[in-house]
Write a structure and sequence with these properties.
The protein is α/β, with parallel strands linked by helices. The protein has helices at 23-27, 45-51, 76-88, 135-138, 163-176, 178-198, 219-225, 227-239, 255-262, 284-287, 299-309, 312-330, 332-346; strands at 8-13, 55-57, 65-68, 92-96, 110-113, 125-127, 153-159, 204-210, 243-246, 266-271, 289-292. It is 40% helix and 15% strand.
């Protein structure tokens, strides 16, 4: 008879764990946060329920793995955590779930991060999905599979800015570099893709272009219509589209990519030298319309050809497969399960991203 599997014991580190926003740490009870400060509610109830019996916080002497619960930064604290884990003979995991493109190279351990460039990646860096809510729960809980129409319906609802704002961002990026340059790169490329889609007679564009970042709309619109309607606009745009544009913003990754998967829709993904998560397991090009950055000005042609070549039955199945992919690999529970399992299988000297 098989012995019952014991929980994975995790030693969480960080100078002030009360400031941690890492969902894994919150789910394991190391920190407890809620927007209204209530001690009786849990911000990640589903993840906490999933964690019970699978993961538990532990002192270093009894741990299976070390997880740094604060955002990764190169520096003395990172080095100390890495060296302590190495001395204890334990795998060590760091997270950098931000737009920051600075290469990460701890002396020991691995760094999972959302924003990565293929040509700047260090041996210790691996891609993590952006951790999103399950949008399907907001939309009734049942996937609505679309039938294939004659023309591809391409949706987008998000920030693009005005031509003047984009011009200003490009000037600021050229002058200041860093985050300003990265933001300009993303917004300008996004505007080019939307222009090609908007002016095309090959596809049916459903594009909602926001001029400011505020709850999926501008501040004025938010005051006039309310946050709830803006959220509904965002969700309806995805639900009523065959393909959702997923293109980087300030960071070199697309948060929307994972939201599209959660709804069982097909991403129209623009690759900007990105590193996507779990590439040894997931054939990303099978789940997306894949467009290289160099093709962005003819993105509508790529979409139209993909849609024309896709059998109606295959289109329906792709939606179901994409929803299942989110459940199996891109939901918060699946992400942490995979990352912890890989750490225990490979140790911290190497991993498969």
């Amino acid at each position: 008879m098989d012995e019952p599997r014991r929980p994975i014991r995790i030693h969480f580190t960080g100078r002030d764990l009360a400031q941690s926003r890492l969902r894994l740490a919150v789910a394991c009870g190391v920190v407890r946060q809620h927007p209204d400060g209530s001690p009786d509610t849990h911000p990640y109830e589903d993840l906490a329920e999933y964690a019970r019996g699978r993961w538990e916080a532990s002192p270093l002497s009894e741990a299976d793995v070390v997880v740094h619960a604060l955002p990764y930064q190169n520096g003395a604290e990172t080095e100390q955590v890495a060296r302590e884990a190495e001395a204890a003979g334990l795998p060590c995991i760091f997270f950098r779930l931000t737009d920051d493109p600075t290469p990460a190279n701890p002396p020991y351990g691995v760094v999972y991060r959302t924003s990565l460039y293929r040509d700047r990646r260090t041996p210790r860096e691996f891609a993590s999905p952006a951790i999103t809510e399950d949008l399907l729960v907001e939309c009734g809980g049942e996937i609505v599979v679309r039938d294939k129409g004659e023309r591809a319906v391409v949706g987008f609802c998000g920030h693009v800015g005005t031509p003047r704002q984009r011009l200003f961002r490009r000037a600021a990026g050229a002058l200041l570099g860093g985050g300003q340059r990265d933001k300009a790169t993303g917004i300008v490329l996004r505007a080019r893709a939307l222009k090609a889609l908007r002016s095309s007679d090959r596809i049916e564009p459903r594009l909602i272009e926001r001029t400011q970042i505020w709850g999926w709309a501008s501040t004025d619109e938010a005051q006039d219509t309310g946050r709830e309607k803006l959220r509904r606009d965002f969700l309806d745009n995805l639900l009523e589209s065959d393909y959702g544009l997923a293109l980087r913003g300030k960071g070199n990754y697309s948060f929307r990519l994972y939201e599209i998967f959660s709804l069982g829709r097909v991403p129209l993904f623009v690759d900007t030298r990105c590193v996507l998560p779990f590439e040894d397991e997931i054939d990303w090009k099978r789940h997306c319309i894949w467009v290289d950055e160099s093709e962005v000005d003819r993105i509508d042609e790529v979409v139209a050809q993909f849609h024309a070549d896709l059998h109606p039955d295959d289109y329906r199945q792709l939606q179901l497969d994409n929803r299942q992919l989110w459940l199996d690999a891109l939901s918060p529970a699946a992400i942490y399960t995979k990352i912890l399992a890989r750490a225990l299988e490979t140790g911290s000297a190497s991993a498969t991203g």
